[in-house]
From TrEMBL:
Protein name per Swiss-Prot or TrEMBL: Pyridoxine/pyridoxamine 5'-phosphate oxidase
Residues noted as binding substrate in the record, renumbered to the chain: R9, R10, D11, Y12, K69, Y126, R130, S134, R194, L195, H196
HAMAP family reported for this sequence: PdxH (MF_01629)
Cofactor needs: FMN
Catalytic activity, reaction form: pyridoxamine 5'-phosphate + O2 + H2O = pyridoxal 5'-phosphate + H2O2 + NH4(+); pyridoxine 5'-phosphate + O2 = pyridoxal 5'-phosphate + H2O2
Presence of the UniProt keyword Flavoprotein in the record: yes
Annotated EC: 1.4.3.5
Lineage of the organism: Bacteria, Pseudomonadati, Pseudomonadota, Gammaproteobacteria, Pseudomonadales
One of the GO biological process terms: pyridoxine biosynthetic process
Binding site for FMN: R64, V65, L66, L67, L68, K69, F79, S80, K86, Q108, Q143, S144, W188, R198
Gene name in the database record: pdxH
Length: 215
């Protein structure tokens, strides 16, 4: 029997999230949840996968999947093409929201805040640890631009390979990191009968507050 969309549902029963478990700031809890996800998520799920939402100058939202590549007290870092659609949106409207979903843990984390570029030195340091193919790809692909066909991309890659025949590719000027400076972090733990736990951290004047939201 084919399951209809209306019939698709699963109860979430694995865990709870209480105020007693939650620290005064969100970063240590995020790190703990991330470490849990690294342990429990099975390939092909990558625990650092998230959805990043940005807005354009007409106020229209756009979202896409990206990989988180760094986290420290300054914020959440990801890498992309500065000339891409998201790059243009962030240049005009430097705010974003990212969502992580860890299905094995029945957990979601939502993070919102201002976005800034990381330094060129930080972008270069990360670029250099990427596999050669990814480094060449960053040079070859005019991300988010219309291309005629697959052959055009292959041609662009061939040109880049030719250019970097004798020297290792350095970080392109159009490619690098962004850091989301969190102003709001919400932790969501699935619970039975859709009565989930939600703890919402907000930053005001450098001080984090925490409240429980209704599911
Ligand atoms: C699992 C996964 C990981 C991805 N990681 C990245 C990434 O780290 N950086 C990136 O620029 N695009 C990444 N992409 C591609 C983006 O989803 C998107 O197609 C691309 O960044 C262009 O988006 P834009 O046109 O909105 O700028 C990833 C896609 C998937 C499915």
């Amino acid at each position: 029997m084919t399951q209809t969309l209306a019939d698709m549902r699963r109860d979430y029963i694995r865990d709870g999230l209480s105020e007693a478990q939650a620290p005064a700031e969100p970063f240590s809890l995020f790190k703990q949840w991330f470490a849990d996800a690294v342990k429990t998520e099975q390939p092909p799920v990558e625990p650092n996968t998230m959805t990043l939402a940005t807005v354009d100058t007409d106020g229209r939202p756009h979202c896409r999947v990206l990989l988180l590549k760094g986290l420290d007290e300054r914020g959440f870092t990801f890498f992309s093409n500065y000339d891409s659609a998201k790059g243009e949106q962030l240049a005009a409207r430097p705010y974003a929201a990212m969502t992580f979903f860890w299905p094995s843990l029945e957990r979601q984390v939502r993070i919102e805040g201002r976005v800034e570029r990381v330094t060129a030195a930080e972008s270069d340091a990360y670029f250099q640890v990427r596999p050669l193919g990814s480094r060449l790809g960053a040079w070859a692909s005019p991300q988010s631009q219309v291309i005629k066909d697959r052959a055009e991309l292959e041609r662009l890659l061939a040109q880049v390979k030719e250019r970097f025949l004798e020297q290792a590719p350095h970080c392109p000027p159009h490619w690098g990191g962004y850091r989301l400076l969190a102003e709001r972090v919400e932790f969501w733990q699935g619970r039975a009968s859709r009565l989930h736990d939600r703890l919402d951290y907000r930053l005001h004047d450098g001080v984090w507050s925490r409240e429980r939201l209704a599911p």
